Amino acid sequence: MDKSEEYQEVVEQLVGMQLALHRYLLTILGDSDAASTVLQEANIVLLKKWADYTPGTNFVAWARSVAYMQALAYVRDRRRERLVFSEEVVRQLEQRAELNDDTSEDRLALRHCLAQLSKGSLELVQLRYRDGSTIDEMAGKMGKSSSSIKVALHRIRRGLLTCVQRQLADVRN
Predict the structure, then answer these.
(1) How far apart are CA 14 and CA 34, in angstroms?
(2) pTM above 0.90?
(3) Dihedral sign computed on CA atoms, order 32, 37, 40, 42
(4) Which of 30, 41, 101, 152 lies in the 20 to 30 Å Cα band around 78?
């Protein structure tokens, strides 16, 4: 195989695993925007260093290791920001991602869609499903009527369902 064929193989494999790499980075960074940024940086590095990849070896492991190093660099560069994970937390999340590599597509799609919610909508979802608050408790906390909370939750759930279905269709196509 000549160099241009090897390069073409690397590009095809990289393109084929973009969603998986994004999910991996989302797992270890916990932020969809950060995962997208790091994925772009990792893609650049992977394409620049394509000759370091040995055809026939584990491409996924090589690409993930580059993405992991880019994630660490991202965290180091943003260490002064309040809401960025420490390097140690990223390492622990990366180990957890390795253990949970079989995370269902449904769960990953839902996680992606939750990350797209507005702050207010996410707060409602967390109050209801993470904290277990009743509709009446939520209404009291937010200073709204129970019926407006019910309607808002219904709209959020419908939007999440549509988003998850779209994400799963994208994965399968």
Answers:
(1) 19
(2) no
(3) negative
(4) 101
